[in-house]
Amino acid sequence: MRASMDNSSGEDDELWTRQTSGTGGGPYKSPALRTQAHSELRPKGAMRTPLPKFQLFLVMLIQVAEPITGLVIYPFINQFIRDTGVTKGDDRKVGYYAGIIESAFFFTEALTVFQWGWLSDRIGRKPVLLLGPLGLMCAMFKFGYSTSFWPLVWSRCLQGAFNGNIGVSKTVVIELTDETNIGDAVAMIPLMWSFGSTIAPFMGGILSNPAKRWPESFGKFSLFTDHPYFLPCFAAGCIALLAFVVTFLGLKETHPTVLARESSRNPKAKQFIYDSEGNVNGSTETLLGQNNPVVYGSTDSTRCPSIVSDYAIIGELDAIPQEPPDPNTPTLLSALKSRTLQLTIVNFAFLAFSEMCFSALMPLMYSTSIEYGGLGLNPYEIGVIMGIWGFLNVFVQMTVLGSVIRRFGASRVYQFSYSAFFIVFLTFPFSAYMARRQGGMGAGVYASIFIQLTFQFFIPMGFGSIHVVIAETTPKPVLGSINGIAQMVGSMMRTIAPTFASSLFSMSLEERLPLGRNFVYGVILVLVAAGIACSLTLPERKNRLSSAS
After folding, report:
1. What is the CATH number of domain 332-549?
2. SS (H, E, C) 420-446
3. Could you give the 3-state DSSP secondary structure of residue 143?
4. How many Cα neighbours within 13 Å face the side chain of 395?
5. CA distances from 212 to 103, 206, 209, 216, 311 (A)
6. Over 60: is that where the pLDDT of 177 sits?
């Protein structure tokens, strides 16, 4: 199997060389791939390109809207379902209906992520990114204002559909960076998830039912009396609205073809390009080595953006919109035939599935009584543990991930990060055993939780590193579509995982299966072992995008 992978990797590298060099067809005319080829010519020892901080901030604001709008409902969703009357007073049914709402989000996201990525490859990244937060805002307002169950499901479906463009934001992050700074940029992606997933439960818990919590102020308004969960949904929707406004005002387009089209239609933009060419005095290293915010209209005369400078170098800007399609330009279908890319997406599926299994099992196992194999913690204790872990995780992602990817390469970082799942799931039965033995939360239980959350720190690194691997194995003309496919696969896994893990947990409590109450952990550990084996098939291309001098 390893030999076949090496052979496949060689074929992919040969295809890559043929695509970027334009063999047999003269100069390669695809601007995106020409730029990608140029970045590979960067000499070793070149300085790291500064990050376009403001543009990345805008993209990260869109990223953080996903976990906030997705997770803000978790503290109150069970009570919300009871209040709708759909369970008819039977609390045993609450979990089933909550599962429907949870799965609806990821199901509709899975149905739409590819379409968003495909659309962004044709009309540009910015228009697609603007639609997401605007739709999320409306869906959140509708969710909080609903009083019956099925409108909640419909609103949740809309949230997932509009959140499907999250893959496009990852494409923009990649297009804003080069091989020297992409590690720092993608480190922000799991950071935003960690940040949003940390503050969302606090928002949902504190702002729910404000009429009872603050009767002197909110109690005077019938809106908050009749709709006790509208305020947290409104707050989350306002964050999405903020993301829409600042993105509309400040985000610049990054799609190379759209940039070229706009430049050809705008004489001032064309003059700017040729002025930039003149100012650098023909410095090939500068033209090929820069990929920074200058592309968005900076007057810095010492640097020229790689995406735009490419056209200036070739001297074919006027002919860009009229160029016939280059037969060497890779299509989506040809990219998907790459075994390396296929295995990369499979690894992303393992990561998304395992992460969601943990997200479902952690509060479920922690809250289950010790008698039935849990820890017997109350919601407040669980919230404190998750909150502290969330804030510490944000700090780790800010300070560690970028430098780790640059030092070891994205593939190795992913392999290590995913392997941490084995210890994370293994600590569940050990914690339950210690709780039964000590008759409660003793030192052994706390030590087990500490070990579990320590290894959990490494898992978000897997998301940042796998995005780098996807970028390394994907031709840029179809990068948006491939990111959409990867996001769709991830959403499908996140749709299945909660029901899978929770159902196995309930079945295990009946003790009619092998391993008894530990059956759920045994099954998931087998799947994690398969994921670890799959991670070893990832290509090692440290010097393409993930390395830095």
Report:
1. 1.20.1250.20
2. HHHHHHHHHHHHHHHHHHHCCCCHHHH
3. helix
4. 6
5. 30, 11, 6, 9, 63
6. yes
CB atoms within 10 A of CB 79: 13
Rounded-to-integer distance, Cα 350 and Cα 338, Å: 19
Over the stretch 416-449, which tens digit does the pLDDT of each residue have?
889 999 999 999 999 888 888 887 788 888 888 8
CB 135 within 8 A of CB 157: no
> Whole-angstrom Cα distance, residue 145 to residue 228?
9
Instruction: Write down how long the chain is.
Output: 549
Domains 58-254 and 332-549 share a fold: yes
Structure tokens at 164: 């499907």
Structure token pair of residue 165: 């463009």
* Confidence (pLDDT) at 274: 34
Q: Strand, helix or coil at 34?
A: helix
Q: Residue 138: pLDDT band by 50, 70, 90 thresholds?
A: very high
- The CATH class, in words, for 58-254 is mainly alpha
Q: Which of 259, 257, 315 is nearest to 287 (CA)?
A: 315
pLDDT tens profile 342-388? 888 888 899 989 988 887 778 777 777 787 788 877 656 676 677 67
For the chain, the structural domain boundaries read 58-254, 332-549
Question: Residue 93 to residues 98, 99, 346: CA-CA distances in angstroms?
Answer: 9, 10, 34
3-state class (DSSP) for residue 461: helix
Token couple for 78: 């069970």
In the structure encoding, which two tokens stand for residue 468, read together?
A: 């780098």
C-beta neighbour count of 218 within 10 angstroms: 18
- Angle between helices 379-399 and 188-207 in degrees, nearest 10: 150
Half-sphere exposure of 64 (CA within 13 A, CB side): 22
Distance (Å, whole) CA 38 – CA 247: 30
Chain CA centroid to CA 379, Å: 27
Tokens of 264: 């050809």
* Among 535, 463, 484, CA closest to 67: 463
